[in-house]
Each structure stands twice: as C-alpha cells, then as structure tokens.
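User: I'm writing a short report section on ligand binding and want a predicted complex to refer to. Could you take this sequence and zinc ion and write out the structure as tokens? A short remark afterwards would be nice.
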Amino acid sequence: MLGIFIKALRFAADKHVLQRRKGCDKIPYINHPIKVVQLLYNASETDPELLAAAILHDVLEDTCTTDEEMRNIFGNRVTNIVLEVTDDMTLNYDDRKRSQIKRAPTLSDDAKKIKIADKISNIRDILDLTLAWSDRRKRQYFEWSEKVVHGCRHTNPFLDTAFDDILKEALGAVPHD
Ligand code: ZN
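Assistant: Sure. The structure tokens for the complex follow:
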C-alpha cells in the first residue's frame, strides 16, 4: 500500500513541477503538500490512501489535471477526497473563501484532516516566508482559517491542537495594523 503513496508523490511532483509557492523565496510548490503529509503523519495518520490524497490535494485546483485522470490512476476514494478539498475555481476569490467556511462541516473526516493540515502549513509559510502581504491581509487569512478549521474539528485531536498552537503564534507575531 505504500506504493500508492509513492505513485502520488511522483504524480504531484510532476504536475507541480513548474510552480513555486507564493512569495519572494520561490520555493518549489511540492514542498507544501509534503509538509501537509508530514503534519498528518506526525498526528498518527498513516492510511496510505489518505496520505496519497494529501500529497495530491492541490493538483486539481492548481494544475490542468482532470479528476478523470486522477480517478484512473488512484481510484475513487483518493480522487473523491481531493475533489472535496478542491475549490470551485469558477467562483471569485471572496466566494471561494466563503464557500470553504460553509462546506467545512459537510466534509468527510479524511477531507477535514487534510483541510486542517493545509491551513497549518499555509500559516507556517506566511510566518516563515518572505511575502509581500500586509499585516492586515495576513491577519485576515489567519481569522478566515480559524473559521474553516472550526468546521473541521474533532477528527484528530493532535491536528486540532497543532492548529490552535500555530494560530496563537501567528496572531501574536502579526499585530493589528
Ligand atoms: Zn494546499
């Protein structure tokens, strides 16, 4: 079963190969899903299909990969989890943000775990990378993340605590304007 995870790692690395994370550091995009997987693993999540979905979680949203292509290679369960955590890119930015809050409580437990780990990784990057974001924009991201995570809690207590810890650090590090 480790095979599906390794295949997903290779697939995601190929699909994200030309992408870089936001910010001046221009780190390879794949570093982000790898961190998300590590957060899940450190929270004792070892299901290879869940970890495969975590490494693939931004592939449908951020590359031209289709869900059909993913389904042929990784099957229904992995693809459905990735679809759950994929924003509808036909909506504008504000509607996508609102939709994430609204949909969070309706997600499967697998998708909720990935959502929380994703938000932890994004906040970590906002604190650690050199971003051309105002403090106000950073705080808006932190506060919005908390609303999404609120709907995803109680699937894994270690993830809940890891989010609370990073949120506290983030709110302390980025003061109100
Ligand atoms: Zn992500």
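A remark for your report: The chain has a mean pLDDT of 95. The pocket of zinc ion is lined by residues 32, 57-58, 118 (CB under 6 Å).
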